[in-house]
Specification:
This protein is mostly beta strands. The chain folds into 3 domains: about 1-60, Roll (SH3 type barrels), CATH 2.30.30.30; about 65-125, Beta Barrel (OB fold (Dihydrolipoamide Acetyltransferase, E2P)); about 130-185, Nucleic acid-binding proteins (OB fold (Dihydrolipoamide Acetyltransferase, E2P)), CATH 2.40.50. The chain has one helix spanning about 95-100; strands at about 1-5, 10-15, 20-30, 35-45, 50-55, 60, 65-75, 80-85, 90-95, 110-115, 120-125, 130-135, 150-155, 160-165, 170-175, 180-185. A 6-stranded antiparallel sheet has the order 1-6-2-3-4-5, with no helix packed on it. The radius of gyration is 21 Å and the shape is flat.
Amino acid sequence: MISTSDLKNGLTIKIDGELFQVIEFQHVKPGKGGAFVKTKLRSLSTGNVLPRTFRSGERLEDAFIEYKKLQFMYSSGDDFHFMEEKTYEQFQLTAEQMGDVPHFLKENMVVNASFYEGKLMSIDAPMFVELAVVEADPGLKGDTAKSGTKSVKLETGYSIQVPLFIEVGNVLKIDTRTGDYVERV
């Protein structure tokens, strides 16, 4: 059990049998009445973000999350299959549980995985990935109506906006947190 004064970003807590990760928290001491803690929590099972307020000093159940590196093997339909490289143990997550991560997954890519009580909870893609461009509209000189960008399709099927000079075959560095183009590799 932890106190609300121990809350920090990224901490995982258990409320009513469900796991939540603290995204944001703020200690508030109003002029009248008792202090409280306002938080934004992300459900690890559904991915939904919800606000929650706790009284100052309230006790919460913390959850021990184990982190491992897994290798992405393949996807079949809406299921994604991963393997732990040391034990060859295989795990599976659905597209719904993965969120936006499938946009950045290539076969044999190593990803960070979080486990709770031996069960795979979530996958985090590396902060930056390098993906090849497979489709690109031609960039016309002087076409700045869309701020000098065009849409391209990456090898994973994900479409992003990039500068006009990007062509088919270019390898791009993509920020997985925002899904934005960073640079040409």
